Amino acid sequence: MGPPGGADPVGTAGSPAAPVRDPGLQPERTRLAWRRTTLSATVAAVLAVRAALRDGATPAGVVACGVCGLLWLAFLVLAHRRIRALAAGPRPDTLTPRRATAAVLCALAMAVCAAALVS
Fold first, then answer.
1. How far apart are CA 24 and CA 95, in angstroms?
2. 3-state secondary structure of 51
3. CA nearest 72: which of 33, 117, 37, 115?
4. pTM exceeds 0.90, yes or no
5. CA atoms within 13 A on the CB side of 46
6. What tens digit of pLDDT does each residue of 42-53 get?
7. What value does the mean pLDDT take over residues 61-82?
8. Helix 59-88 vs helix 26-53: angle between axes, to the nearest 10 degrees?
9. Apex 65 CA angle, 103 and 74, nearest 5
10. Which of 7, 8, 35, 61 could form a disulfide with 52 if both were Cys (CB 3.0 to 4.6 A apart)?
11. What gap in Å lies between CA 41 and CA 49, rounded to an integer?
12. How far is CA 91 from the centre of its chain?
């Protein structure tokens, strides 16, 4: 017997079907978060390169700028793939632990490179 008022909770009447998932705006919010993070990483990388090359290019500064640029590109590729996956359909694939770890490591390494370039 259902609750008062004749309303029947999902899955109790008829077949034992699981409730249909309504993602709502969650994929859109996640996609926008990836875009904001990519923009922040871009600004941080540009400012770090600018700070490193302001007083003249030293070999260590050029190497650090190159590493920072490569890390930024790797993060950009990971973020772009995730943004495309989120935009592809109503239920995006789960972010794999390998890609999540790669994104976190790229972001951390970029932060360390940027801190080394600024100081």
1. 18
2. helix
3. 37
4. no
5. 6
6. 887 888 778 777
7. 84
8. 170
9. 25
10. 61
11. 12
12. 17
